[in-house]
Amino acid sequence: YGKGTRKAYxxxxxxxxxxxxxxxxxxxxxxxxxxxxxxxxxxxxxxxKIDLSELLIFxxxxxxxxxxxxxxxxxxxxxxxxxxxxxxxxxTSAPSFDDPISAVDLTLFWGPNDGGTNSAIWxxxxxxxxxxxxxxxxxxxxxxxxxxxxxxxxxAAKDYFADINQLLALTPTGSAVIxxxxxxxxxxxxxxxxxxxxxxxxxxxDVGADRFMIILETxxxxxxxxxxxxxSDINEDKSMLWIDLDQxxxxxxxxxxxxxxxxxxxxxxxxxxxxxxxxxxQSYRMAFMLGGIGGTHQWExxxxxxxxxxxVRIKPLQSSxxxxxxxxxxxxxxxxxxxxxxEANATGLVAGNTYYYxxxxxxxxxxxxxxxxxxxxxxxxxxxxxxxxxxxxxxxPSWSSSDGRSGxxxxxxxxxxxxxxxxxxxxxxxxxxxxxxxxxxxxVHLLGSNPLHLQVSGDATISATLDLNGTSxxxxxxxxxxxxxxxxxxxxxxxxxxxxxxxxxxxGGGPSHLTDPYQLNSGGKPHPGGDDYRSSGLVGGNSAxxxxxxxxxxxxxxxxxxxxxxxxxxxxxxxxGVPELTHLLAGxxxxxxxxxxxxxxxxxxxxxxxxxxxxxxxxxxxGGQGGKVTTTTNPPSVGGSGSGGAIYLKAPNLVIQxxxxxxxxxxxxxxxxxxx
Length: 676
Description:
The protein has five helices and 43 strands.
């Protein structure tokens, strides 16, 4: 209550629509229908002059077509057809409820023998749940979240805007498919004006409390190649836009194809986002974000393609935009991400044995899959085309293939004493396979914050390119300061940002998969300020330093000192690890410059096979490049570059094919910078 819209219909005609506010007070009085209870005496207060012949109660609001069916059913049953409007879909004939539902209840049968289509022969069965029909529709999938009262709402919006994945990891209060304004979605399009429009979609947020976040996701199909621009017009709220430019299934502030957070502003209001170059015929997942923290809620979305002269409002249902902004909707009207996952755990398997499986579906009819499938009880990947993703984030790392297969690994925590008797704790993501074959036609995506360990109890062949390079910081043609750290992958340390205007940078981070990434003092030194700080112990000059690993990063500070405004600058440039890679540690990030951020350290990977390990694709673990201001050659403005990562390959028979390149070099310095 207080988070939706309440409507009343009479003879199929809407009579009122109210936006609920407040809370429902507790009461000991019983529920009354067709009257009310006297709050003082507990007896009848009054009764309505009606005959109540039938009452139907549903667990959730009916979709409008289903509501129309119920109206028609009751009208024909109680001889009230004459009261329905002539335009009512069931005015002339009663509705039929015999049509099959657009969903199916699925059961998986499996065992050591093929039971065919005879349920009694199968040894095991497990319900997979109800699977709904999916439809690609024009519009957006919306998720809503309430900002807890314990958090400062402005800071929360800043944090979520800085990393959308933090918000997506939370459970939304509700979701809906939004195709435009509730009253006229085709004509008005994506313009929500006032609390009522937001409440209409019943996503579980108290709009009037001004403490909510909304994410609108859609798949944008670029009609032509070139530069695209998007805009968010609001009133007192805040907004953001992310787009998965490299199409790897994850929003990253800096992806392989460039920035995926389309502004460097921390918490913008009305904004034309940075333009992006898209390829004709390619589909890009994008997410508009709204921080509902103002007092008046309005939200209008616009876009401009290369062929358009100006920004226009997004109207997914308009014929001229048909198919451009689409999302998946289920037959129960839910968003596609709420689809039942077709997976089950099979226990008691004997390694190496062959097992059979078949699926049976039931709705108004029942049917079996056309044929029985088989699998061997082993953990294996054999793939020649498509994409393969390893996500090393915890608590459970995972892998997934574009062909629908997936699996999980485990997070391994290791603690050891280094040469100075310091206790070092770090995490890796380990995946165990019986055999592994990844062809050169496979695009491999390596995601997550922990190094990747592939342990194969047999032969392994990897012919695809493995890219665990550090992330290069963003260049800029203006002197705008870099507000965000440069995040790495597979354990690579962050590149430092700018924290006090042009006066002070932030240090680069050591390997991010360490319990304390700054423990090793291996990240690059930050820009300490514009003065001479040698008397305080700083000897590396005013420019940012590079990250270290096996070798010392550029412009190290052996002891540290004091920089701008008496800020402590820690020691930097310390080396760590051993050549044997006894411990799988990633690279370290470069320090933040006076204007631009540092590049991140590269990630780390370990591939071990008990049989033959064949490497037929390049493996890259080079540090990210520091950012620069393209209109100046001033060294202090530049961020430091990250160090290289680690690549560990081991097998009784290791084969590296001719022409393969394997590199863990440190990141190169920014181009075109002169002086010291």
